[in-house]
Amino acid sequence: MAVKDVKKVVLAYSGGLDTSVILRWLQATYHCEVVTFTADLGQGEELGPARQKAEMFGVKEIFMDDLRETFVHDFVFPMFRANALYEGQYLLGTSIARPLIAQRQIEIAEQTGADAVAHGATGKGNDQVRFELSYYALKPDIKIIAPWREWDLTSRTKLMEFAERNQIPIAKDKRGEAPFSVDANLLHSSSEGKILEDPAVEPDPIVYQRTVSPEDAPDKPTVIAIDFAAGDPVAIDGVRLSPAALLTRLNELGKVNGIGRLDLVENRFVGMKNRGVYETPGGTIWHIAHRGIESITLDREAAHLKDSLMPRYAELIYNGFWFSPERRMLQALIDTSQQSVSGRVRLKLYKGNATVIGRESPNSLYSQKTVTFEEDHGAYDQVDAQGFIKLNALRLRLGATAGRRGGAL
Question: Which of these is catalytic: 74, 115, 156, 181?
C-alpha cells in the first residue's frame, strides 16, 4: 500500500508496548492521522493509561468503549447456544472477541471519516485473519494496515530500540524476553509462546491467572443453580443478572473451584500447530449446564443434528468467519433449536469439575412414566420392540447371508 494512500487510520489500541510502537510507527511511516480505539471486554486491566499514552502521542480522537454487555449478549450468547468447541476442547474465548473489535473499528472509521484500519496481530497467528476477514465483510473497500507484515522491527531488540528512540515508555519487565504472551477478556484468558512453546513441558504455575489449582480448591463442593431462557442463562441461584454480570459471577465461582483449565495443542488456520493454555472458568460451567438443560428439552434427532453441525460452526468462528453467510445460516438453525431450551440446571463445583446433578424444565421431553422399571400402565408396549429390532436388523441379516455365499468381507 502506498504511504500517500492513507489519510486517517483507526488503530485497535491496548496501550501496551506493541500497539504503542505501532501508533508511533503509523504516524512516522504513513504521515497520517491516527484514531485510537480501546475496547473494554472485561480483560481486567486499567484502561486509563491507554488514553494517557494516546494523548502523549498527540492523538485527537480517542475512543474508549465498555463493550462487556455487547460482547456477552451479541457474541458469546449465540456461540454458547451452539455448544461450540474447536477441535472438541477449545471454548473459543479469543476467537469470539475479534469480530466485535473489528465491527467497532469499522463503525469508528465511518464515524470519523477514516479510510483505513490497523491491528497489532502478527503474521504467524490467527488473529490477523479474524480481524481482516471481519473488516472486509463489513466494509469491502477498507484499507488495512498490518504493521507486523510491513515493518522491519523483526525482533524484540529492534522493537525496544524503536521505543527508546521515540520516548515510548517501556515497563521494566518488558526489557527482557517476556515469559509468555497473554490475551484476556471476560470469557477467558489465553497464554502462549516462550516458556509454553515446548508441548512436552508442563505449564509453570505462574501461567494460570484466573483459576486456583484444583488441588488447592476447597474440600467442600459448591452447589449452584442456573436458569435458562431460550438457550441463554438468565439467573444464578434465582437471582437474575445481566449477561456480563452473570458471566462475571460464573467466573468467580469457577475460579475458586479450579474449573476451566485447558492445555491444548491446536491447529491454527494459517497452517501450523500451536500450544496454548486457556482458562475459561465461567464458560466451562455454562457449557456443561447448557448441555444439561438441552438433554431434557431437545428432541433426539434435533439434538444429534445440532451436534453434527457444531464442529463446522466452531471452525468458522475459529477461522474468522463470524460475518459469513454460512455462519449466519447455521446460527438461524441453532437459534430455532433453542426455543424450548428453558429451565433450571443444578451443578456441583468441586476441585476442577463441574457436574450436573439436576435438571428441570416446563418443556421437558423426559417421561418418567415411560422409562420407569416399575409398572408403566401401558405407556410403552415392550412387545413393539421386537418388530423394531427385526426391521433394523434386516440389512444386517441380508449382508451376513450374502457374506456367507461370497466369502468373508
Answer: 181
